[in-house]
UniProtKB/TrEMBL annotation:
This is Histidine phosphatase family protein. Pfam families: His_Phos_1 (PF00300). It comes from the Bacteria. It comes from Hydrogenophaga electricum.
Length: 223
């Protein structure tokens, strides 16, 4: 039986011109996760990650904190969907940059509706694959892990969309439930599967064991 640890990237730059960049706190979250794993003797046999900058920066922080010396396998199927393209597909007028609680609620209401329509095949956001193709990119990474790393520990560094899709496919969840999982996953959170050559089984979802101390309460973020 192997263990697969799926890590959502550290805090990025929500609302900034370039979201695909870890904040200083995001780097700290990643390094702290690496230290936590090193303290518990985790020695992964392989690492897969998407090709986004925030994925690479998160892995760099984990590797620094843990002292890992592994070259990650870049797997573009682990990249996040384009949330702005999803929103534009159903809301052609630009949304105001969210700066208030109501602004954030409006942003995520529209995003939730757009995701539902994309997953149903009702809309085709510009520059994005179909949801079935997106999900295949995720499940192909899971298939690779099962086929190549039986009995080993493996880390995947990705984003909320691919991780929630992986959980949704493994558990056979509805689109609505998968979306709710996606919108609640926290930065640097760990989701753990156990796997054998035939299947993955969910063990934990969206956990922050490395931040489970009053000292790190302010390090828990979602965007």
């Amino acid at each position: 039986m192997g263990n697969l640890y799926l890590v959502r990237h550290g805090q990025a730059s929500f609302g900034a011109a370039d979201y695909d960049q870890l904040s200083p706190l995001g780097r700290q979250q990643a390094e702290r996760l690496g230290r936590y794993w090193a303290e518990r003797g985790l020695r992964p046999a392989a690492v897969l990650m998407g090709s986004l900058r925030r994925h690479a920066q998160t892995w760099a922080g984990i590797a620094e904190g843990a002292g890992f010396d592994l070259e990650p396998l870049v797997w573009p199927g682990l990249n996040e969907y384009d949330s702005e393209a999803v929103i534009r597909a159903i809301h052609p007028q630009p949304l105001e940059k969210p700066q208030t609680p109501e602004g954030y609620r409006q942003h995520f209401r529209v995003l939730r509706d757009g995701l539902r329509q994309w997953m149903d095949g009702t809309i085709s956001p510009e520059g994005m694959p179909s949801y079935d193709a997106f999900a295949h990119g995720v499940t192909s990474a899971l298939d690779h892990v099962r086929g190549q790393h039986h009995g080993q520990d493996v880390i995947i560094v990705s984003s909320g969309g691919p991780i929630s899709t992986a959980v949704g496919r493994v558990l056979g969840l509805s689109p609505d439930t998968t979306i709710e999982l996606n919108l609640r996953i926290r930065n640097s959170a760990v989701t753990q599967f156990q796997f054998n050559p035939k299947r993955h089984s969910l063990l934990t979802y969206n956990t922050l064991p490395h931040l489970d101390s009053p000292d790190y309460t302010d390090w828990i973020t979602f965007a």
